[in-house]
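Design job #97: recover the sequence.
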């Protein structure tokens, strides 16, 4: 794969399906061939292989990298790109054909599962938008300074716990619907409040909080007004509602109206300082992060990735 600047580097991240696991790729492959697109496809073996394959595409001169996968695979890809120099990164365009458990960032741009022909047609027109990335900077259990970029959001607290439960139950049940329903049921046994100490803009929040979402994009419905190109982060801080309000909150979340809930306090900022989030899980783009030790910071990097958007 030498100097493939005119070809697409396609990274296929298969779903773990029982029936016809290759059927989806066969459909995508047929569309690529009909449209006369030159490409090389590599299939990921597991989540750990995504960054390695993206790096291989970069080193071999591919200027268009398409992720056939979900939010986690996209997250791995942008973190790999951010390891490159600005000059290299600016020469590459990243695109997505949604194929994951969660495709929130793809849906933001109206790329949808089942609409592959339209999606590939849009990608072929190569309309590029410079997009922002959020970044969480923290210290791990080995006392190492770490950071992780994100496209969607960072979740702290209950929603991160639910996402972790959902991944575990997905492995058990296989079904997305069953895993979501069982996660909500198991939520009853989860800690509902976390002692937090946050600074957002000039306001300090020091109290018990149920969940916090810091979104560069829609944040799985929790930051519905966020856009990944304005150099800002939207933040939703949710205090512990009463039981009836909790169910109302889930309804508003599913209908995109979560900011109307009385327990949700929205902010817009460029930085969030988290001095304390005792025992709270932290999720980045839907994937659980090893809980940071001590204080951590979430900020924004403006217009750092070339992303292929609909024509």
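Job complete. Output follows.
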């Amino acid at each position: 794969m030498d100097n493939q600047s005119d070809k697409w580097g396609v990274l296929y991240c298969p779903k773990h399906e029982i029936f016809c696991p290759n059927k989806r790729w066969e459909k995508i492959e047929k569309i690529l061939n009909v449209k006369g697109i030159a490409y090389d496809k590599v299939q990921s073996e597991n989540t750990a292989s995504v960054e390695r394959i993206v790096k291989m595409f970069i080193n071999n001169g591919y200027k268009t990298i398409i992720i056939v996968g979900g939010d986690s695979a996209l997250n791995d890809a942008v973190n790999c790109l951010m390891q490159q120099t600005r000059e290299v990164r600016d020469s590459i365009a990243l695109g997505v054909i949604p194929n994951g458990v969660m495709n929130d960032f793809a849906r933001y741009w109206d790329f949808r599962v089942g609409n592959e022909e339209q999606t590939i047609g849009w990608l072929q027109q190569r309309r590029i938008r410079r997009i922002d990335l959020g970044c969480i900077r923290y210290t791990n259990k080995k006392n190492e300074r770490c950071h992780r970029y994100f496209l969607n959001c960072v979740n702290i607290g209950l929603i991160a716990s639910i996402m972790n439960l959902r991944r575990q139950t997905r492995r058990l049940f296989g079904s997305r619907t069953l895993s979501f329903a069982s996660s909500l049921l198991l939520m009853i046994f989860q800690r509902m409040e976390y002692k937090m100490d946050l600074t957002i803009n000039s306001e300090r929040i020091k109290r018990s909080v149920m969940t916090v979402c810091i979104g560069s994009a829609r944040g799985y419905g929790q930051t519905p007004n966020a856009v990944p190109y304005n150099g800002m982060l939207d933040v939703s801080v949710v205090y512990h509602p009463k039981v009836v309000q909790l169910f109302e909150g889930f309804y508003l979340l599913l209908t995109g109206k979560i900011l109307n809930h009385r327990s949700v306090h929205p902010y817009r900022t460029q930085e969030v300082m988290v001095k304390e989030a005792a025992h709270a899980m932290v999720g980045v783009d839907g994937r659980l992060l090893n809980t940071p030790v001590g204080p951590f910071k979430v900020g924004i990097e403006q217009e750092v990735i070339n992303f292929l958007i609909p024509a």
